[in-house]
Amino acid sequence: MAAFPEGKSEERKHKSIPNGSGASQGQWGRAWEVDWFSLASVLFLLTFSPLIVYYFIMSCDQYHCSLTDPIVDVLMGNSRLSNIWNKTPSLSWKAANIYICWVTFQVMLYILVPDFCHKFLPGYVGGVQEGALTPAGTVNKYEINGLQAWIITHALWFANAYYFHWFSPTIVFDNWIPLLWCANILGYSASTFAMIKSYLFPSNPKDCKFTGNLFYDYMMGIEFNPRIGKWFDFKLFFNGRPGIVAWTLINLSYAAKQQELYGQVTNSMILVNVLQGIYVLDFFWNEAWYLKTIDICHDHFGWYLGWGDCVWLPYLYTLQGLYLVYHPVQLSTANAVGILLLGLVGYYIFRMTNHQKDLFRRTDGNCKIWGKKPEYIECSYTSVDGTKYYSKLMISGFWGVARHFNYTGDLMGSLAYCLTCGFGHILPYFYIIYMTILLTHRCIRDEHRCSSKYGKDWKRYTTAVPYRLIPGVF
User: Fold this and answer.
1) Residue 433 belongs to some domain of the structure
2) Which residues are the signal sequence here (predicted)?
3) Can you say how many angstroms the Cα of residue 150 is from the centroid of all Cα atoms in its chain?
């Protein structure tokens, strides 16, 4: 659900150039009209997504990570739903204070500390950066300082663990379910506030979309780039902070708990921390590039992003580490090396595919991909204000292998996370199942948008690159 590094925009375009024509207005972004299937999907997700998160976390807390035992227990009359609920830890003042301090700290790092990493890290792009052109034809500026926030946060975490001892490194695990209620409160509050804001004081009224359906607008969002003040951008903050900064801290807390319970940290837990840590660091290293992705370029800010990044992402993307606390797995050397290689190869494909796109866009195609000048198809589209723009869609390199080959690498990495847990339970494999569904849906959603945007030019592109994810298969 959460739109972050897994969902990368497939628009391989260089800097758009207006020609000033008076062509008819084009549209991109989320849907203008809501059909019955979309409405049913929205109602299903609004109703059951919070229950799914609760069920997974409760299963680990009360049933040792079994997804079937709770159902069997209730159907056999051995337990009641009320009994399961009564055993669930409730919201506590301790958890509330932890969460308030956490979010406040991340807000302060986001809006009060200008980026300094770009001044001494070669190749890193930080500081004030421009986003992509919005449907209304505006360009927002962003303070890119996520890597800096991640470094400061983790430096303090390790300083506490090894020197200050203000709190136990297991603090996240020990308060995991009470923190779930806090995360839900923030997710719903941010989503509701964004919806009210879109009616009363939108940041840019021209970038708002009202379908007239309350449920759809609440979930998918109305305002394109809701902001408070000059720099606090809802989409950039909630996509990256606090959820993704927390991702690696959550895994570290799981490792600390494993050490506390069993006297050691297994190689499977180390692999989860390393592989997912690489993924998180990649996100923040390329945060400026993230401004060109589907989350920022097309999605409006609603419950889908607000609640998803506060609850769905930190609770379900970290299931492998949580599972390994309850079921420690010590992999053989061969299996550990194989999983590591799968994760690293997947990351390489993911990163190099996106690098080729970025290089192609930055140089306007005047570069070399796999040792030769890239091939491309030139396309045109029209913004809401009637201005015509031109784009280039690359059809060579990894982008000539499949139209979404970065997603293929993403899925390889996702599978590697899950394989660290062995085959004792299905719970840790939720991630690869979910990511396969999510990224396949994003392929179709993005291509539908591009087809509407580029028209016959998109048909030329799909003819040149016929496969979406797996060459010769799909």
Assistant:
1) no
2) none
3) 16
Q: Tell whether 469 is covered by a domain.
A: no
Structural domain includes residue 316: yes
pLDDT at 36: 86
Q: What are phi and psi of 25, to 5 degrees?
A: -65, 135
Q: What token pair was written down for 131?
A: 């986003």
Question: Is residue 68 one of the residues assigned to a domain?
Answer: yes
pTM of the model: 0.88
Enclosing domain of residue 178: 36-345
Q: Is the pLDDT of residue 2 over 50?
A: no
Lowest mean pLDDT, pick from 60-69, 122-131, 334-343: 122-131
Amino acid of residue 44: F
Q: Which residue has the tokens 């972050």?
A: 4
Domain count, the chain: 1
**Model pLDDT, residue 29:** 52
